[in-house]
Amino acid sequence: MSAPTQPQEAAADPSVKLVIGAVAITLLLASLGQTIVSTALPSIVGQLGGLDHLTWVVIAYLLSSTVVAPIYGKLGDLYGRKIVLQVAIVIFLVGAVLSAMATTMTFLIAARAIQGLGGGGLMVVAMTVVADIIPPRQRGRVQGLFGAIFGVATVVGPLLGGFIVEHISWQWIFLINLPLGVLALAVIAVALKPRGERVKHSIDYAGFVLLSGGLTAFVLATSLGGNTFEWLSVQIIGLVVLALAMLAAFVWVEARAAEPVLPLSLFRNNTFAVSSAVGFLVGMAMFGSITFLPMYLQLAKGVSPTDSALQLVPMMVGMIGTSMLSGFLMTRTGRYKILPQLSTFVLTIGCLLLATMQLDSPSWQIAIYMFLVGAGIGPVNSVSVTATQNAVPRAVVGAATAGNTLFRQIGGSIGVSVFGAIFSSGLAARLAEVMPAGANAGTGSFNAQAVAALPEPVRNLVLEAFASALHPVFFTAAAASIIAFGLTFILEELPLANSLRQEPEAEIDAEEAATAAVVGAPAVAVR
Known about the structure:
- There is one protein chain.
- By secondary structure, this protein is an all-alpha fold.
- The radius of gyration is 23 Å and the shape is globular.
- It has 19 helices and no strands.
- The model is unreliable at about 1-10 and about 500-525 (pLDDT under 50).
- One of its GO terms (molecular function) is transmembrane transporter activity.
- It is a multi-pass membrane protein.
- Pfam families: MFS_1.
- One of its GO terms (cellular component) is plasma membrane.
C-alpha cells in the first residue's frame, strides 16, 4: 500500500491563528457553562432546595442547549458564523447573570435554561468556523486541541466551582463567565469577517418549532419518568406520544422544506449517521459520569467540593491526552476509524470498573478508573466532527456539525435524566431499608452536612446506600458504551481532504440541489 500523502501546511496567516484563538475561548466558555456547576450542586440544592432537584439544574441547561443546536447550525449556514456566534454569547451571558441572581430553585432552573439557549450555539458555531478556514486533513489536529480544551474544562470547571463555593459564594460560579464572554466577543469582533453577500433565505419555522417541541417533550419524559411520575403514568405516556408525533411531523416537514433545519439527506450519509449515534451513546456515559462522580466523592467519600474536583484530574488527563493524540494521528495518517473503536472499548471498561466502587475503595484505584473513562471519551468528539465535516457538502457543514452536537447533547440530557431516576429510586429504596422507623427516608433532605450530622451507625448505613445506589448508574453507562463500540465497526472511512474546496464525491439529488441553489453553494449532495 502506498504511503499516505502528507497534509498541506496551512498558510501562515495571523488572522487564522486569531480565529482559532477566538474559537478556543468560545469553546472554553461553553464547556465551563456545562461543568462548573457540578461540584457546586450539593451546596446550591442545600440552600435552595432538596437533592431531588439536583439533576434539573443540569437538565435545564442541557435541554435548552440541545433543542437550539440545529437551529444555530442552520442560521450559521444562512447568515454567516460571526453574527450568530455573537448573539449566542450575549444570550449565554444574560443567562449567567440571571443564574447568579436566583433566590429559588425554580428561578435558577429557568435562568440555566436561558443560559443554555446561548450555550447551544457556542460550541456548534465555533466548531463550524474551523471548517470554513482549515482543510479536513489539518482539522484533526485542531479539533484534537479543542477536545483538550473541553477536557481541561471538565476538571477546571468543577475545581473552580468547588473553590468558589468554599471561599466566596455559589453565585460567582456564574458571574465568572462574564470576563471570558466579553473577551470572546472582543476577539470575534476583530478576527471573524462577516458575510459580505446578501441572499434571500427561506426560514424553516415549522421545522424549528417541531424539532424543539419534540426534543423537549422527549427529554422531559425521561426526566420526570420514574421520579416525579410513574413511567406508565398518563403524564409520561402523554409526553412520549407528543414527542413521537412532533418528531414524525418534523420529518414530514423537512422532506418538503426549501431549506430544512436538519436536511434528511444527512441521515443517508454513513459517516454522519454512525458518528451521531456513537456520540449519542458516549454523551450518555460522559455527562452521567461528570454529574455523578462528584456526588459520590462528596456524599459517599466525604471529601470537600474542591477536593472532589481535584480527584477528577485523572479523567481530565485521559481526555486531554487521547484527544490530542487522536488529532495528531488523524492529521498524520489521514485515518480515523480505529480511534473511536479503541476509545469506546476503553470507555466501557472504565464504566464497568466505576460500577464496582465501594466506600473503602482506595483513591488510587478510583483515579485509574476515571483515567480510563476520560481516555475513552477524548477521541470521540474530535473524530466525529472532523469525519462528518469531511463527508458532507460545505453548504450543509453547519447543519451537519449541529446534528453531531445535537445527538451528543440529547444523549447527555437523557443520560442525566435516566441516571438521575435510577439513582433517586435506588437511593430511596435503600434509605427506607436502613433508616430508623419513623425517620424521613426521602432523598431531598440529604446533603453532605445532613449526612455528617447523623449518628455514626446510621451514617455508615446511609453512606453505603449512597454508594450502592450509584452502581446501577455506571452499569447503565457501560451498556451504552458497549453498544457504541459495536456501531464503530460499521463506520465508513473516507480520505480526509487536503483542500477546503474539495467536496465529497456524491451524486446530486433533488433535495440537496435545491438547498445548495438557494444558499448559493456548490450543488453536491450527501450520499
